[in-house]
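check this one:
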Amino acid sequence: GQLTMQLTNYFFRTAMWGMFKAGDFDVTITNAELPKEFLIHFLSNSTFFTGAAPGLNKQFPNSVLQLVITFQNYPNVSIAASSQSMDVTRIAAILDFQVVSPKGNTPAFSLLLDLTCQVTQLIPSMNATKLALNGTLAKFTHSISVMKSNVGTVSAIPFGTLVDIILLGVPKTH
């Protein structure tokens, strides 16, 4: 026989909550994990970081950084079957940039990212072990702000541009 599954908003919201509680959204990104062709590298003396956080390389010369992303809430997901779209509202995450050291990592600065997006043209696919929803990022808004810094002044603007580039491929005007 044929099996038909109807996935409701409750299913997706519960899945997001469970993944949030399990810490599945939290991630640490090291410089070694970045592709060589990526726009920036997590080095205190890189052009990106000397522009965004001028005191970083002064305090931690020629240091390697890592980014620890910690979600503050679970994404609120709403599926609209009629338009094959999904709205994800208010994802809040703390972006902690840390200086990597064999003696232990040192917090450099933290940013708060708030993100809302809409994904359209959802196409479900399933294999033996997982269900996937593939779609197109149709629109998104975000704000990014500096929460704290141990290296002096940090500008959030370059990081906002980086989010634009990662999600859209091109920076948008702020």
Observations:
- The beta strands are 27-30, 65-71, 76-80, 85-99, 106-126, 131-149.
- Residues 170-174 have pLDDT under 50 and may be disordered.
- The longest strand covers residues 106-126.
